[in-house]
Design brief:
Strand order of the largest sheet: 7-6-8-10-11
CATH superfamily of one domain: SGNH hydrolase
CATH class of one domain: Alpha Beta
Strand content: 5-15%
Amino acid sequence: MPSRTHPARPIRRALILFLVTITVSGLMFAVAEYWVRQTQPHDDLLAVTGQKKTQSWMQAWAQVDAFSAYRGRTGTYVDGVKTVNRYGFISTPDLPVTRDDPNTLRIVFLGGSSTAGTGGAWGGDLPDRETWPWQVAEALRAKLPGRKVEFINAGLSGYSSFESYGRLWSRIRFFKPDIVVVYHAWNEMYYFNKGDDIVNWRTLPDGSWGFHEEQTRKLYEPLWIDAWIHRSQLLTKARLRLSSQQRGETAESKPLSDHFNPAALDVFRDNMRLIASATQLMGAELFVVKQATLVAADLPIEWQARCRYDFHGFDHRAHVDAFAQVFKILDEEFPADHIIDLTNLSGNPEYFFDHVHPNTIGARKIASGVARGLLIYLANRGKQAN
């Protein structure tokens, strides 16, 4: 007689298959959950409310300063190749406040992270000796063998002319520099859309200033399901990823303005005048540098992607215009022999990690241009003295 399949067997096989699938899926989920818990931080606030608390990135290397918002925290960083000396100056050999040799030439460099040699979005920090201020000092020592050359790198990540002016009149003047070199442009543009609210520069909503406070950022709108999945770090990460893709609100994807607030240009002009007045008061010569940057009018689209225009909120063409306007102010405010123009380096991706931070090659090019400008001035001053 032909065999007949027992009606319970298919059900039993389906049940076994279902149980095996559930068991394997559960094990895979458990493994994935364990991996996420071991490798990525979890935030219950984020999971339930869509809000994330983050600490300021400056806490690791900076401390509050009474006159320039913040200064470097004394110590050694980046596996020992990046240092901050006892006065809070980055990539600067230790030096006394007063000079021990009247023949010493003392130079101060003011700027942001591209001067400090830190913070490239597509690269890393430059070791002390590869920063362009350090290389300028070495180039001058080679050309001025009878002269002792000391320098201070007073640049720091995030500094604009606001912070540089504060540091110049409050701290640097006691070191009695002979020459001050200003290298600012990109960081100025952080306030180029805040021209009407510049009185609140470097203040928190409560009017105070500091970077030890936690900042809360809303990443997505919470749903009913969040109350159920927030205990799972794996599901929370998936929730965050899907939400950010749906909303499309990453900094890089937000629409950028095609212009900036022109009132900010007057702020920059006044800041440079204040720096010039302080430099004159301390008896030093002031040189301004037209900053080298990847931003250029004819920059190809694929290279524009390396420029974090979203930091400032306006697009490529507006940035080209902003740089042109900043450089025009330098031309109007300072004599030509005290302007060092490095815009011939701009637009070349071989010199930059990203939009403005020089790599090793770029730092060497910048140092060469600045040293050349200073040597021409020193040679002419020597001729006049004779």
